[in-house]
Specification:
CATH class of one domain: Alpha Beta
Distance between the termini: 32 Å
Strand content: 5-15%
CATH superfamily of one domain: P-loop containing nucleotide triphosphate hydrolases
Number of helices: 6
Strand order of the largest sheet: 1-2
Shape: globular
Helix content: 55-70%
Oligomer: single chain
Number of strands: 2
CATH topology of one domain: Rossmann fold
CATH architecture of one domain: 3-Layer(aba) Sandwich
Largest sheet: 2 strands, parallel
Order of helices and strands: HHHEHHEH
């Protein structure tokens, strides 16, 4: 379902924006599927890659920003899990596997996935991400 939604999102929103020369920023994309499904749910990287191959249609991100913060730190920072979010209620062990999935992805794709220290203030995180985008001539 995630891959199908991704294919529709690409077709309806991303592809037209890219064709118009716009910068596209997504809060989740294929790396989320790898972290949540391949690593945390144990479905395997190759399996998730195959499922998403059609959906992606050669639209890999130029840059993925991994705001690196352990799940424990993240939940403390936002005062707990969102009670209305099924994934946030999956438990700390699940979120640790998701986090480790992102860490592994950052090692696997260092040219594309950039880690940003999530322990900084929101303003400092924003400034660092903005600097990354400018440094890659995205802005």
């Amino acid at each position: 379902m995630y891959a199908a939604a991704r294919a529709q999102h690409l077709s309806d929103k991303v592809e037209p924006a890219l064709q118009a020369g716009k910068l596209v920023v997504c809060d989740r994309y294929v790396d989320s599927s790898f972290a949540y499904q391949a690593y945390a749910r144990g479905l395997g990287f190759d399996f998730i890659e195959k499922i998403n191959a059609f959906a992606l249609q050669n639209y890999l991100p130029d840059l993925t920003v991994f705001i690196e913060l352990t799940p424990k730190e993240a939940f403390l920072r936002k005062n707990g899990a969102d009670e209305n979010d099924r994934l946030e209620q999956a438990g700390m062990a699940f979120h640790e596997r998701v986090y480790q999935g992102y860490v592994e992805l950052a090692k696997k794709y260092p040219e594309r996935i950039v880690c940003v220290n999530g322990r900084q203030s929101p303003q400092a995180i924003f400034a660092e991400v903005l600097s990354l985008l400018k440094g890659r001539n995205c802005l």
